[in-house]
UniProtKB/TrEMBL annotation:
Transmembrane segments: none annotated. It comes from Hohenbuehelia grisea. InterPro entries: Aldolase_TIM, Ribul_P_3_epim, Ribul_P_3_epim-like, RibuloseP-bd_barrel. This is Ribulose-phosphate 3-epimerase. Pathway: Carbohydrate degradation; pentose phosphate pathway; D-xylulose 5-phosphate from D-ribulose 5-phosphate (non-oxidative stage): step 1/1. Pfam families: Ribul_P_3_epim (PF00834). Its EC number is 5.1.3.1.
């Protein structure tokens, strides 16, 4: 299995102190920062877009921004997110008719490409061709749209199925993940761990990051 990567979701942070919050997470051991971009169409809420990401990348040099694009037209934002310093552009399979061309466009802008599936999308919807072209697969363990929701156990078998098909691929889990749910995620084979509430809401985020990482690595 690929190495463990912890990607705290800044959705649970203090947006008024965003760059400081990102620096705090990196100091605490996080490799990536998970940036939830919501457009009010694909999901009901609106969060942040390229102008905010641009400020973060300038304020936190070297940051790896794992951009989770919960947007209705993922083709539309590739250039803006690349210009803003995005490192990985993860779009929802449900939001595009041409994932291969989109992956190609993302790679042309020197970003890694991720493919996300919502709870009701089977893992078999990700074709071998798409998965091979992508750098990362994201299995949502809550319905996309907001932080702090309950982890959906029924999504875990999709992680196992994808890990069996793609032993070397980065597989991310996102939604309700924390110390209480990391065991099943790690056993199923996910190696990129997103956690918002569990990290930002903790008294000692550094300890939570270390625990999540060691559970995946063992
Ligand atoms: C949900 C987002 C998640 C969310 C995770 O739509 O994609 O990244 O912020 O937050 P927690 O860990 O609190 O469930
Ligand atoms: Zn997310």
């Amino acid at each position: 299995m690929p190495r463990a990567i912890i990607s705290p979701s800044v959705l649970a942070s203090d947006f008024g102190q965003l760059t400081a919050e990102c620096k705090r997470m990196i100091k605490g051991g996080a490799e990536w920062l998970h940036m939830d971009v919501m457009d009010g169409h694909f999901v009901p809420n609106i969060t942040m877009g390229a102008p905010v990401l641009s400020c973060v990348s300038k304020g936190v040099p070297g940051i790896f921004m794992d951009c989770h694009m919960m947007v209705a037209q993922p083709e539309k934002w590739v250039n803006d997110i690349a210009d803003a310093g995005g490192s990985l552009y993860c779009f929802h399979l449900e939001a595009t008719n041409d994932p291969l061309s989109l992956i190609d466009a993302i790679h042309k802008r020197n970003m890694k490409a991720g493919v996300a599936i919502s709870p009701d999308t089977p893992s078999t919807e990700i074709s071998d061709e798409v998965a091979t072209a992508a750098d990362m697969l994201l299995v949502m363990t809550v319905y996309p749209g907001r932080g702090g929701q309950k982890f959906l156990d029924r999504c875990v078998p999709k992680v196992s199925e994808l890990r069996a098909r793609f032993p070397d691929k980065d597989i991310e889990v996102d939604g309700g993940v924390g110390p209480k749910t990391i065991d099943v995620c790690a056993d199923a084979g996910s190696n990129v761990i997103v956690a918002g509430t569990a990290i930002f809401g903790a008294d000692n985020p550094e300890a939570v990051i270390a625990q999540l990482k060691s559970t995946v690595n063992t």
